[in-house]
Design brief:
The structure is a homodimer of 143-residue chains. With 143 residues, chain A is an alpha+beta fold. Chain A folds into 2 domains: 81 residues, Arc Repressor Mutant, subunit A; 52 residues, 2-Layer Sandwich (Dna Ligase, domain 1). Chain A contains 6 helices and 6 strands. Chain A has a 3-stranded mixed sheet with strand order 5-4-6. In chain A, α2 crosses α3 and α2 crosses α4. The interface between A and B is large, with 68 and 68 residues. β3 of chain A pairs antiparallel with β2 of chain B, so a sheet runs across the interface. Bound molecules: manganese (II) ion (2 copies) and zinc ion (2 copies). The site of one zinc ion has 7 residues of chain B, from α6. The first copy, chain A, binds a DNA duplex (30 and 30 nucleotides) through α2 and α4.
Chain lengths: 143, 143
DNA sequence: TTCCTGAATTATAATGATTCTCATCTAACA
DNA sequence: TGTTAGATGAGAATCATTATAATTCAGGAA
């Protein structure tokens, strides 16, 4: 099997990205540990190996890796506060590119019983609200 | 039926909130139009009736209304970038209070066929990713 | 109605995550 | 090895949101 170093060089080559030392270290910092990583934790980890790295480089490359499908962004929402007056339980459809939000009035695509069974013990799902991510018509037409 | 003014005074009284003119106008700006409202649009609308209102008051009261259940926050997730290396399709369980994210490996609580039928035409759901909101064990124990 | 008091509002400063700028550096290729 | 487009680092800038603190007001008592 190839070394982690070689694996990353391969991936970078496939994406047309220069395989810099910084990218190598950032990528490995995320891949090394399962779970969800904040920029803060990645930056802290990466600085142990490359103390001179810039925070901007971490941001730039995490975004780049997400764009190229090497990493996944956990919650690809708009980061700004949105509010609504419709209190009737309903779900949302969110475009991962333009962050547009549409209502999904009908909810029968969710099997609440199965969901409750799969959730960890103690997690309160008495009013489970669901968001589904995809690409809106306009964005999927572009790509 | 009571006037919109009286309706709001009733709701505010039930929550123990002072029924100020600003709160009245903010609440009505959201309620008047169906759909999802950003702070920017609420602020613009509200200033037409009350030009002296402060942006901080809009933020404060939108948060307050959400806390008291008069309004709903559309995507109650952490606003900071989170990234993961696990590219295998899987879903997430998010705590609306502390914003913790957990994986939901099994996905059979989603009926993809029904979902596709209910989504608007042209919406790309070829890899639908789902987030379910609830209260994690720790947070639901507190409340 | 008038007065009182704690809460609400306002203007503005502060915060904090993220992005931008640009001078310097380097990976990739010939 | 030399060239160069693209990457990096340091710090400034941005922008949404929150904190501060002085002023005003809602709501209850007299
Ligand atoms: Mn909605
Ligand atoms: Mn995950
Ligand atoms: Zn879109
Ligand atoms: Zn929680």
């Amino acid at each position: 099997m190839a070394s982690a170093h070689e694996q990353f060089r391969n991936l970078a080559w496939k994406c047309g990205l220069a395989a810099t030392h910084q990218r190598q270290v950032i990528y490995e910092a995320v891949i090394a540990t399962p779970g969800h990583h904040s920029v803060e934790t990645v930056y802290a980890e990466v600085r142990r190996r490359t103390p001179s790295i810039s925070l901007a480089t971490v941001y730039n490359n995490l975004r780049l890796f997400v764009e190229h499908g090497l990493l996944r962004e956990v919650s690809p929402h708009s980061s700004m506060l949105l509010v609504e007056g419709n209190l009737a339980p309903h779900h949302h459809l969110i475009c991962t590119r333009c962050k547009a939000v549409q209502d999904l009035e009908v909810a029968d695509f969710v099997n609440v019983k199965k969901l409750a069974r799969q959730a960890p013990r103690g997690f309160d799902l008495s009013q489970p609200l669901v968001e589904v991510f995809g690409l809106c018509r306009r964005c999927s037409a572009k790509s």
